[in-house]
Hints:
Layout lengths: L6 E2 L3 E2 H8 L2 E3 H8 L3 H8 L4 E6 L4 E7 H6 L3 H17 L2 E14 L6 E15 L2 E5 L5 E5 L6 E3 L1 H33 L5 E6 L3 E3 L6 E3 L10 E2 L2 H11 L1 H14 L1 E4 L3 E6 L2 H23 L1 H4 L5 H8 L5 H44 L1
Antiparallel strand pairs: 1-2, 3-5, 4-5, 6-7, 6-10, 7-8, 8-9, 11-14, 11-16, 12-13, 15-16
Amino acid sequence: xxxxxxxxxxxxxxxxxxxxxxxxxxxxxxxxxxxxxxxxxxxxxxxxxxxxxxxxxxxxxxxxxxxxxxxxxxxxxxxxxxxxxxxxxxxxxxxxxxxxxxxxxxxxxxxxxxxxxxxxxxxxxxxxxxxxxxxxxxxxxxxxxxxxxxxxxxxxxxxxxxxxxxxxxxxxxxxxxxxxxxxxxxxxxxxxxxxxxxxxxxxxxxxxxxxxxxxxxxxxxxxxxxxxxxxxxxxxxxxxxxxxxxxxxxxxxxxxxxxxxxxxxxxxxxxxxxxxxxxxxxxxxxxxxxxxxxxxxxxxxxxxxxxxxxxxxxxxxxxxxxxxxxxxxxxxxxxxxxxxxxxxxxxxxxxxxxxxxxxxxx
Length: 362
């Protein structure tokens, strides 16, 4: 339908002005009033509730839509269609990033002289459409990379900030830990009543269940100590790294011993010999736990029962007493079985002798 006559200056026809006054508008304006996209408007109402008028000095033919009539036909189907249109537009809308760090590979040269050049630029802009990435460097150089292109990767401004924050926090924690370590070490070494000695760590092991250090064997003689200067101790702590140094100092303060580096056990105590006995008792405790949990037969796979008995004979704690009771019960049962076997053997001999006597009488 066309009702064109006259022009209002160089902008649009008088009929176009009249149409808007009567509630008919171009697609973009009508869609905005109706709260739907122009795609939805044109899909459902292109041939109905529509007329055209001339606009602009070029006499462009523009379609006008009757908003009041369209409102009557705004069904749920129209609204659902419009929702889907909006979703697809969001998905297809290019993502624009700024302040990115971009890495990529560029091949230069030809033939045998062709070589790979690795690039890394800060402050880049990236426009992403699907798998296509258009990168613009700070210097204005623009190039395109697909998502999985060899050697291509980027970090967003938010990722870079998060990494920088993490590094900053790590440095703060490291500084705090170092300050505490130095204070603990100073307090530890200020106690002049305690000796600082080391022995070979190969004869010891850390129990993963209890986190205690134990002697590997309880039937061997203790090792000879080697004195350790405070300066040498500090140097070995530094070589161990911050985390292990913290553990070594903390355990020395709490227990009087700890592992030092890879190959040494350090002892800080008034009586280093008693510490070695303690480490043997730690191993004994592990054996007792095995006996409690698995029984004596399983325990015999780990240790000589007579040696273990010698180490726990004076202990009064419940765990040691329970194992001693089991050992005593087994020994008693063994004694009874031996006596019973001996008595049976004697009875057999008596029967045999009686038969021999009877045979002689015949």
